[in-house]
Design brief:
8 helices, 239 residues, 44% helix, Rossmann fold, binds NADP nicotinamide-adenine-dinucleotide phosphate
């Protein structure tokens, strides 16, 4: 149970807030007293007085810039960003449709780049911020079919490392949380035996549960974590 005042006075932005991990993280921030901005393609699935929903295609840089114009006027600030939205097409490289590969690059890597840099402009004004990217065990385990997906997730860690330096002077930290398999639409599109085989390779061979993820998010988003930046935290023991 989260302290209902833990995030009071903070504005958190979660991409992919409608479903899966993003929705779980969004509800956590709301339960902790934050104002929450959610980005997704579809209509809101969260009904809460402190929730602001924006429909945006995170694969489209000009849509992201436009949504930040609206956000600046309506909300005026962002303190914590969770770059969570992503898509997965798992397919052998030789038959991966080029369009699907391009979509992953746009949504999973360039989207977080645009969101992070627009949010950082707002964070700079208040000299405080936390940017947290949702990474994946796929970077370390390199499952067949995940060449582009895993490369995008590896890119998030590298991007956080560079941004950590660029944003350090205004007290903005940038980190990546590489999660393991957790029940969601994204996971359920994969054959169960393939997922189980990946899980079996983990030092802690089980699925993730909500608290595994929320625990690290709370740590990285904390006031006390101002000296933790450019790090990738892997759940389940992979590294
Ligand atoms: N689930 C796992 O086992 C697992 C494992 C490792 C890493 N991850 C990572 O964890 C994060 C969350 O995954 P999940 O399993 O919760 O995924 P999910 O159930 O498929 O949900 C994805 C969310 O991202 C949003 N989204 C996708 N493309 C978008 C776009 N172009 N523009 C705006 N929003 C978009 C979706 O919005 P709509 O609802 O509007 O479509 C949805 O809310 C991802 O970064 C994923 O790579 C997940």
């Amino acid at each position: 149970m989260i302290d209902p005042a833990r995030y009071s006075g903070r504005v958190a932005l979660v991409t992919g807030a409608r479903r899966g991990v993003g929705r779980m993280v969004s509800e956590h921030f709301l339960n902790g007293g934050a104002d929450l901005v959610g980005f997704a393609r579809g209509e809101s699935t969260i009904d809460h007085p402190h929730y602001h929903h924006y429909r945006v295609d995170l694969g489209n840089a000009s849509e992201i810039a436009a949504v930040f114009d609206d956000l600046r006027k309506a909300v005026g600030r962002v303190d914590i960003v969770i770059n969570n939205a992503a898509v997965l097409t798992s397919q052998y490289a030789m038959i991966m449709p080029a369009q699907a590969a391009q979509a992953m690059l746009n949504i999973n890597l360039l989207g977080p780049f645009m969101v992070s840099r627009e949010a950082a402009k707002l964070m700079r004004k208040r000299k405080w911020g936390r940017i947290i990217n949702m990474g994946s065990m796929a970077v370390s385990l390199e499952p067949m079919g995940d060449s582009v997906y895993a490369a995008c997730k590896a890119g998030l860690s590298t991007m956080a490392g560079v941004m950590a330096r660029e944003f350090a002077s205004f007290n903005v930290t940038c980190n990546t949380l590489a999660i393991t398999a957790i029940d969601s639409d994204m996971l359920n599109q994969l054959p169960r035996n393939k997922v189980q085989a990946i899980i079996d390779r983990l030092p802690l061979p089980r699925f993730a549960v909500a608290d595994d993820i929320l625990n690290v998010i709370d740590f990285l988003a904390s006031e006390r974590s101002s000296y933790i930046t450019a790090q990738t935290n892997y759940l389940g023991g992979v590294n």
